[in-house]
Amino acid sequence: MDRIYMDNAATTAIAPEALAAMLPCFGQVYGNASSIHETGRDARKLVEAARRTVAQALGAKPSEIYFTSGGSESDNWAIKGAAFGNRKKGNHIITTQIEHHAVLHTCEWLEKQGFQVTYLPVDEFGRVDPKAVESAITDQTILISVMAANNEIGTIQPIPEIGRIARERKVLFHCDAVQAVGAIPVDVNAWQVDMLSLSGHKFHGPKGVGALYIRTGSKVDTFLHGGAQERGKRATTENVPGIVGLGAALDKAVNHLEENGMRLIYLRDKLIRGILDNIPYARLNGHPLERLPGNVNVSIPYIEGEALLLRLDLAGVAASSGSACTSGSLDPSHVLLAIGLPHEIAHGSLRLSLSDMNTEEEVDEVLRILPGIVTTLRAMSPMYDDFIRSQQ
After folding, report:
1. Could you confirm whether 175 is annotated as catalytic?
2. Exposed, middle or buried by CB within 10 Å (0-12, 13-18, 19+), for 97?
3. In this predicted model, what pLDDT tens digit does every residue of 261-274 receive, in sequence order?
4. pTM (two decimals)
5. Dmax of the chain from CA atoms?
6. Choice among 25, 107, 175, 325 that is catalytic
7. What is the CA radius of gyration of the chain?
8. CB 329, CB 343: distance < 8 Å
9. Integer Cα distance of 332 and 145 in angstroms
């Protein structure tokens, strides 16, 4: 069997439809989309067609879609733009402890600029309580930022309820939907969000391109200054091939959302059952039902996540871990700690994330080889020996 790729939450392979749509932009349609001559106008038509595609996928207006370099930039723009754009009204921001670092590090930076940030806890499944969000609002609150679905454990947040609260209290609401767009239905009006971030490479589009939805009338400062691109809100020459690829990939994802979702849920649940049934003491992380269709995150006690990843890689399987060792940190995932896992358990976590390109045969193969790898690693663990003796 060929190598098995189950790290789709990190990035996805580009869809053939997206690649085909992009190729002319490197040759025939190479103009600057901001130029007024015909070559530029041809590029502009492609950019605006992609903008309409993104807007339709989100239930938004095309004029509310701004193209960016990816999810991290979209998060930064939304949070910093809303913070500084509304500083005269207040200086308080509400978010959660399990946000992506593009949100958390931005909020931490804003604290150095004089803003106050409340980091709300989550429950054992990684869900924030909307009542906690409401209770945290003060007369100084200008922004709430809560992700739609967690990139590590796949838990889907109660975004519509939080959106209703934010709307009633007249507080801007930003949603990092990088993991959600293309995986579950997203509707900015049903969710009542004022800003929403997405990234092309999470749904089989190209890397280096994303978008930020900004509801008409929301006071959000310009992020990049320079030219008049993106209606004067984000300077820099448009990435025409990337934007076109993002549009084509999102169009395909949305058009096949229901059928792909049902298939992925089947594969996800088979993978979860197989792991929990065949690896003693393994536990599922994240909500058992309210989770992304392709997300599997399990903790396997008495092994190191990085060692598990290396063994899987040698066996031809690409996955990721709850451990942050590869990033140079000795601390485990902040998400796993936030849901109450002790350090030693969080270090032995495994994320397998599926896309519509994965097959049932690949799931079966992972279930065949994973228990043996775990057994081998546990055989080298004195902690596991001590645990087994304590159970006798």
Report:
1. no
2. middle
3. 999 999 999 999 99
4. 0.95
5. 80
6. 325
7. 22
8. no
9. 23
